[in-house]
Amino acid sequence: MKCPACGQPASFRRTAFTLQGVSFSKAIHGYSRCAPCGKLLRLTNINLSLIVQTITGVAFVAVYAFLFRSIGLLVGFKIAVVLFFPLLIITGITAGYITLIRSAKLTIVDEGNGIKT
């Protein structure tokens, strides 16, 4: 994603692991601040990311259920069950994040009254 004001791309580390210059409550609602220019931005068009996470999760469960006996025989059934949830979570987060970075849009927000420009 690039800032619509200055055109600079967001860094992966800053996007994934920081609040991006806003309070935690604003970060939850999709707000961030551009590091180079300091403009307040809002993340929009995240519906595709949620759809991709859901489809990826359902597909992963189907494939894992189909291959469960083979995986269980290979590593043991207890380990296969324990591995299921972390792999499901990692797959969903990764697919959602990649889709979010590629399809979401940033809009500039007026800091005084929260109106998008």
What is this structure, in a nutshell?
Helices cover 57% and strands 10% of the residues. The chain is mainly α and 117 residues long. The chain has one domain.
List the main descriptive attributes of the protein structure presented here:
117 residues, mainly alpha
| Arithmetic mean pLDDT | 79
Distance between the termini: 17 Å
Which bin fits the share of residues in helices? 55-70%
What is the count of helical runs?
4
> How many domains, in number, for the residues?
1
Low-confidence stretches: none
The major pleated sheet works out as:
3 strands, antiparallel
Per DSSP, what share of the residues sits in E-state strands of 2 or more residues? 5-15%
Task: Provide a descriptive summary of the structure in words.
With 117 residues, this protein is mainly α. The chain has one domain (12-108). 57% of the residues lie in helices and 10% in strands. It is built from four helices and three strands, in the order H-H-E-E-H-H-E. The chain has a three-stranded antiparallel sheet with strand order 1-2-3. A hairpin with a 6-residue loop joins strand 1 (31-33) and strand 2. Helix 3 (47-75) runs antiparallel to helix 4 (77-103). The longest helix is centred in the middle third of the chain and has 29 residues, at 47-75. It is elongated and about 60 Å long. The mean pLDDT is 79.
